[in-house]
Amino acid sequence: MGTIARGVKNAFRNSIRTISVVLILSISIAMALIMFESLKTVETKISSVKASIGNFVTVSPAGIRGFEGGGSLLTDDSISKISQISGVTKVTKTLTDHLDTTTTNLVTPIAAGDFGNRQQRQSTGSSEGSSAGQNQNHSFAMPIMVSATDDVNVMQSLNVSQFNLTSGEKIDGSSADNVAMLGTSMASKNNLTVGQSFKAYNRDIKVVGIFDSGNTFSNSLIIMPLKTLQTLSNQVGQVNSVLVQTVSIDTEASVTSAIKTQLGDSADVVSSQDTSAQAVAPLSNIKSISTYGLIGSLVAGAIILFLTMVMIVRERRREIGVLKAIGASNALVVAQFSVESLVLTLISSIVGMVLGTFLSNPILKVMVTSSTTSGPSNAGEAHVAMMRVGAGIVNGAQGAVRNLQATINWQIILYGLGAAVIIALIGSALPAYFISKVRPAEVLRSE
To answer: Is residue 433 packed enough to be buried (19+ CB in 10 Å), middle (13-18) or exposed (0-12)?
Structure first.
């Protein structure tokens, strides 16, 4: 007990040195805490970003971009090749078509507006003057789009970023029944409710569900089972988009490469890995900075304490000699200086944690700013590509870095205290041990 008491008392023997050591060491511990806190925050965010972006690869016929491109649809043979690729866990097929106004009694809820009429003029080759006059009497009607999938639970394949069933039930994507779900805008425009029917492809289609997707375009969609639309539109065995899910985001690159090899120039393959890389790159930079900062802060703290204890031990060589002369063992000498070092470190840890709590978010923001100053040149391309897998996915990736908030919890505090104890023991035990090996007679004679 006397050894501990002497160690605690010795920590405050020189008040100026104690304050100086605590101040310098607390800054080092605060930086270590901030770096560790930032590291854990970034690791959590990286996992969250990867999960939100998902592990998807979109395959579409070469040249097809909505209804503005060309190309030939994908066939069952192409999809079979994709399904057999190692690392592929799920393949969701999608077919999209326009309804001919002569084969449906539906009215589109989307007004053409200036943009829609302009596209119509350009596609028909009409002149500005003549079409302007015509449009005073007749406005171009936007086409009614119908989409189909074999798994309605994977709404990303239908470019629906969110899905809320307001009434009725979901369709069975594997069925061949003449049923459909309508977006709220389409249902409202045509006064349709669950259980009623409408005409499409000159057939009666029953409304089994109405959904809200959160945006005007998707709320104007008609969603059918895949086999139903393939049969009604005379496109049996064909699809214009395939959403491939891989084992994990880490296998995406190999799956993407294998699909390109299998299908060659007949398909365009877009991976969510590009968007993942764009979102994770600045986070990885912050992670690297935090890791090196953590190591540097811990090393600096250990060195500061080591040099401080070497100086203290050298000043007390006579005291060590006296202790040895009256029968104190090496262990008792080391323990006394270790307690002193531990007291200094614990005081510094308390001050450092207070500093770390207040400075963690400002310093993290500085690291975020420096890591996102220069973005990749192809960020726009990745954004456009991943729009095919759902707008909400991309938006989540874009905000990943901006929304970083560091928080200190008990786990981080305990890790910090553990590191401080290790630094204290290493920083004091080594110099105390080496000095304690000196014979008492030699120490006293030199004094």
So the answer is: middle
Query: How far apart are the C-alpha atoms of 225 and 322, rounded to whole Å?
Result: 92
Do 80 and 228 have their domain in common?
yes
d(CA 403, CA 89): 32
| The domain boundary residue, chosen from 271, 288, 303 | 271
In sequence order, what are the beta bridge partners of 200? 203
Tokens of 47: 């996992």
Integer-rounded Cα radius of gyration of the chain: 35
**Residue 433: in which H helix or E strand, if any?**
helix 410-436
Long-range contacts, 436-440 (Cβ 8 Å, 24+) = 436/320, 436/324, 436/330, 436/333, 436/334, 437/330, 438/317, 438/320, 438/321, 439/324, 440/321, 440/322, 440/324, 440/325
Q: Are 204 and 326 in a shared domain?
A: no
What pLDDT digit, counting tens, does each position of 186-197 carry?
999 999 999 999
Residues 158 and 247 in one domain: yes
Q: Give pTM, 2 decimals.
A: 0.55
Decide if 134 is inside a domain.
no
Both 351 and 251 in one domain: the answer is no
User: Which residues constitute the domain of residue 359?
Assistant: 2-52+278-446
* Contacts of residue 202, Cβ cutoff 8 Å, sequence gap at least 6: 103
**What's the pLDDT score for residue 404?**
62
User: Which of 240, 271, 302 represents a domain boundary (last residue)?
Assistant: 271
Are 430 and 287 members of one domain?
A: yes
Q: Mapping DSSP to helix (H, G, I), strand (E, B) and coil, where does residue 385 land?
A: helix
Q: What is the pLDDT of residues 205-262, one digit of tens each?
A: 999 999 998 888 888 899 999 999 999 999 999 998 888 888 877 788 889 899 999 9
Q: Which residues of 6-16 are buried (b: 16+ CB within 10 A; e: fewer)?
A: bbeebbeeeee
User: Could you give the CA distance from residue 263 to residue 366 in angstroms, rounded to a whole number?
Assistant: 46
Query: Does one domain contain both 215 and 258?
Result: yes
Q: Tens digits of per-residue pLDDT, 154-186? A: 765 566 667 788 999 999 989 999 999 999 999
- CB-based contact 303:41 (threshold 8 Å): no
Lowest mean pLDDT among 118-132, 186-200, 287-301, 409-423: 118-132
Place of tokens 């049923």: 179
Residues 340 and 439 sit within 8 Å (Cβ to Cβ): no
% of the chain beyond a pLDDT of 90: 18
Tokens found for residue 107 = 């009215």
Supply 21's token pair.
Answer: 């050591």
